[in-house]
UniProtKB/TrEMBL annotation, chains A, B:
Domain HTH marR-type span(s) in chain numbering: 38-171
Keyword line: DNA-binding, Transcription, Transcription regulation
Species, as recorded: Aurantiacibacter gilvus
Pfam families xrefs: MarR_2 (PF12802)
Keyword presence, Metal-binding: no
InterPro entries the UniProt entry points to: HTH_MarR-typ, WH-like_DNA-bd_sf, WH_DNA-bd_sf
Family matches, as PANTHER family: TRANSCRIPTIONAL REGULATOR, MARR (PTHR42756), TRANSCRIPTIONAL REPRESSOR OF EMRAB OPERON (PTHR42756:SF1)
Keyword RNA-binding listed: no
Name of this chain's protein: MarR family transcriptional regulator
UniProt-listed PROSITE patterns: HTH_MARR_2 (PS50995)
Length: 171, 171
DNA sequence: CCACATTGTTATCGTCAATAACTGATATCG
DNA sequence: CGATATCAGTTATTGACGATAACAATGTGG
């Protein structure tokens, strides 16, 4: 709990830092800075919100090793039993080594099973174990809670709007 | 044996690995896989869209060293001349070491000036140099173009809606 | 003056991901 | 059939990056 572990992507930046915590006394006069052009583009608040979501998810899951990326992978495996590593990695935009390591992570936890399919013995079909099913069911709840916390300020309609707009961006 | 490309021609197209191709376009819908619960939460498309924005910005800026985070810092410096490193770092959620390095980056490029202010000689006032002004003006255009590309599928109204919704989340 | 807080820098470490090279399996085509 | 290329996955190496901790310099308050 005390220490925050490393679990970040390249573009990641944590909002909460030890330095920030160390800074106790609030400044007397120094108001917030002017964000300049950053106020007028979409990309910046997008990142801020994503970091908030990331932080919320990590907090809800309460296991520093379980990152959103790994959660996504487990969800994808659960929703596509028998998919190959290549398919799973491509769906999340991961390189093949990164895919291998992500699946290794879940296999090491006994959540995932690599099955050699006789029709093409180069690849594996990836399946959840029973432990993986339990883990995924648990994670799904936490993901939902975390997502609900992220959008707590929005009405149902607004959440739907937001998703529709995001969907429109990536077609 | 593996595919060792001896006598390799440097510009040969065959040197492009399958990995590189595979990792293009982490489009949400393009895969044959079922995204399961990921379709029904806000956090996942948020990340996808942010990655698209990140990629667009990197492409428009066309200098791999200039990341969104560094752009944000330069923008912040330009909009708040004389701010201290602590203020700048706090505004972007950076630790003090990360702040130092980010400002080092721009100072090494001659864009930024650390001025010792007599009233508190522990800290610096950070200012843009003339080169920094030019760089920032150039970057602002590229940021706008990139942001416009990100939201190309949205109308003006929809962009405003999206920003309002994002603002509502993180306020 | 002394203890302590602050600002910023440097050192060290761990994590993560990317590229390249490798193994093993399959496809293609003469 | 057999040579060659391609595909799926793993491993090795490297590099980027952030975090913590320790440090110097400066400021503040008893």
């Amino acid at each position: 709990m005390g220490k925050v572990k490393n679990h970040a992507n390249k573009g990641d930046a944590t909002l909460i830092t030890a330095d920030a915590v160390r800074r106790r006394a609030p400044k007397l006069q120094s108001g917030p800075l002017d964000y300049g052009q950053l106020k007028d583009i979409t990309g910046f608040p997008l990142k801020v919100v994503w970091i908030i979501g990331y932080t919320l998810l990590v907090k809800h899951v309460d296991d520093p090793a379980i990152t959103p990326q790994r959660v996504s992978m487990l969800e994808l495996i659960g929703s596509n039993p028998g998919a190959t590593q290549s398919q799973l990695g491509a769906a999340l935009g991961l390189s093949r080594p990164a895919t291998t390591l992500t699946i290794d992570f879940w296999q090491d936890r006994g959540c995932v099973d690599r099955r050699t399919e006789p029709k093409d013995r180069r690849s594996f079909g990836i399946h959840l174990t029973e432990e993986g099913e339990r883990q995924l069911a648990d994670l799904r709840q936490k993901v939902q809670m975390s997502d609900k916390a992220l959008t707590a300020n929005l009405s149902e309609d607004e959440i739907a709007q937001l998703r529709a707009l995001l969907a429109k961006i990536h077609q």
